[in-house]
Amino acid sequence: MSEKTPAWVKPTADYGPLIVFFIVYFRFDLMMATAALMVATAVSLILSLSFERRIPMMPVITATIVGIFGGLTLWLDNEIFIKLKPTIVQGLISAVLLVGLMFGKPLLKPVMGTTWPMEEIGWRRLTFRFGIFFAAMAMVNEVVWRTQSTDFWVTFKVFGLMGLTFVFGLLQIPLLNRYHLDKGKQQTEPID
What are the domain boundaries of the chain? Predict the structure, then answer.
């Protein structure tokens, strides 16, 4: 986030579409909520672009998947497609992270490296953990939408997935601290 960007922009762009989806679902139905999610996602991209003058890659990928699966949900009048979206997104993130590791690239480092510098082994371990976590979350979404009511799935999608991700992130703090590089050590490390 640039210095001129107000603090509310990032959380609004990140969580606004999900909140809109939840509210519209419980006021109307899944089809209306899907359409609202698609519009809110487009608005969040425009918001990011207008303040940041760029759109990060992950929101673009997510918006594309929302557009495709939301569009299929509305066009075919079939809720399965929007229920598959979290599985696809989580599965893609997992695959990208784990395949990156297979090629020796801990892909969380370019995303988070400037905020929290760490030793290379820390990046590899953190990337592996997040890769496995996102694969597990894809499987959990599959189990939930296939075995529970739509009301339960919507609540799980909004609060459960976000809550589990937050808790998992907190559980990574010991790893982040163990491999954290202090400023003096950063300057002596070679740049990749």
Answer: 1-76, 79-192
